[in-house]
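Below is how a single chain appears once it has passed through the pipeline. First comes the sequence as given, then the structure the pipeline wrote out for it. We keep one example in the README because the format questions we get most often are answered faster by looking than by reading.
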Amino acid sequence: DILQEGSGPSVTAGNTITVHATGIVLSENSDPKKFWSTKDAGQQPFTYQAGVGAVIKGWDQGLLGAQLGETRRIIIPGEEGYGPRGFPAWGIGPNGTLDFTIEVLKIE
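Resulting structure:
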């Protein structure tokens, strides 16, 4: 879902992009829980190369085509997230569904 429209260039595979991101793990057995945010104290925007597998599949594919300044909400099923291993250090269980809000700050 596009929460805020962007303008200008769009993210394509191979671009280096910088984003603000907030991740929430969704669970059938408990309330949604934030596990990471670049907007939290001591955090900084996150930079990665898009479309080349540098981040989880659902995020990597979910931001292709996003424009500079755009904010998207991406719901990522477990198989496109951290899979059967989860990410226990962040409280993400096996095949945990993730809810990311991502704002594109820079595209290079």
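The chain has one helix and six strands.

See the next section for the split statistics.
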